[in-house]
Specification:
325 residues; alpha+beta; six-stranded mixed sheet; eight-stranded mixed sheet
Length: 325
């Protein structure tokens, strides 16, 4: 399949290889965005691909800066390397290049990890343009956006699917981007593949491929096959921050959350802010502080009602946080 060479991803022009790769995480991510005609101009980020049958070596000249799942990151000055001991991503911030060194053993030994490395590498490159990531789902209701923030298995996807029947647009399921210009925060979409478990797939009648499970036991689905509303590239306006937890009661409950606690939860959902060696760390921290100060903050104790009667339960949730008309 021939792909557009240049794509404008939230006004950051990305150049990528013209041919699709097997299980390329960027295919689904860039699909909703317009191809870009750069002429003789250089892209803001250039993605290069190299293939080897043998594993790419771990860098011996760079110190480790963080470990994430099965992935080790190394870095110094204008260079970062992400490795799973088979495949390797080299990031040159001075040259604005992301080189993906792909080894077939990577996917055989650690399925899905190379795709995770792609998302991590792109996220590090976008920080050069003041764009940062949140471990969150995002969905819009007219001029208002809801962010559901938290780690895995706290109910972000289930709640987002339940809310989508009332929504006007979606930003993403597992990650949302943001940028703060010093005055206000703009949210940007990150339409990567959805990941759902058996219970969620059954509750929302989602068609899944039983052979396509991830290491976490979830199924990957293209967002356009899941959401009932269109992709919304960005949001600039009122924001409500929801921090879900699963308690298993019959009925969901909404409780106001203090700004101080919400900021702490945002830090947890932005793990790179705890890494001293990651570039633009202070700018990221400042942006999170502005985001929590701009938005309203609530804790949501998720009950079984979101799975048993999602349309009514999600309407009640929206009314509780003052969004539903």
């Amino acid at each position: 399949m021939n792909l557009p060479r240049f794509v404008s991803f939230h006004d950051v022009v990305i150049e990528r290889p013209g041919e699709s790769l097997d299980a390329d995480a960027f295919d689904a991510l860039f699909r909703p965005f317009e191809p870009q005609n750069c002429g003789n101009s250089r892209a803001d980020i250039t993605i290069v691909v190299e293939h080897r049958k043998e594993p790419f070596p771990v860098p011996s000249d760079l110190p480790p800066i963080f470990y994430f799942g099965h992935v080790q990151a190394y870095g110094a000055d204008d260079v970062s390397v992400i490795s799973d001991r088979y495949s390797r991503l080299d990031l040159r911030f001075d040259k604005k290049t992301l080189t993906m060194g792909l080894c077939p053993q990577s996917e055989k030994s650690l399925p899905g990890v190379t795709q995770a490395m792609q998302h991590l590498g792109l996220g590090l490159m976008l920080r050069e343009y003041g764009i940062f990531g949140l471990h969150a789902a995002g969905i819009c209701f007219g001029e208002h956006a809801l962010l559901l923030i938290g780690d895995c298995r706290v109910g972000k996807t289930t709640t987002t699917l339940a809310l989508s029947v009332h929504a006007t647009g979606f930003l993403g399921d597992d990650r949302v981007l943001f940028r703060n210009d010093g005055k206000t925060t703009t949210l940007f979409s990150y339409p990567r593949e959805f990941h759902v478990d058996d219970e969620t797939a059954k509750a929302f009648a989602l068609s899944v491929d039983p052979s396509a499970r991830s290491m976490e036991g979830k199924y990957a689905l293209a967002p356009e096959h899941v959401f009932r509303v269109p992709h919304q590239p960005r949001h600039r306006g009122p924001i409500t921050l929801l921090f879900p937890t699963i308690l298993g009661d019959d009925t969901s409950l909404v409780v106001p959350m203090t700004k101080a606690r919400a900021y702490g939860e945002l830090l947890v959902a932005s793990a790179l802010t705890s890494v001293q060696g990651v570039r633009h760390r202070q700018e990221n921290l400042d942006g999170l502080e502005r985001l929590v100060n701009e938005g309203r903050t609530f804790e949501v104790h998720l009950g079984r009602d979101l799975l048993q009667r999602p349309e009514q339960a999600s309407k009640e949730l929206l009314r509780a946080v003052g969004v539903y008309p």
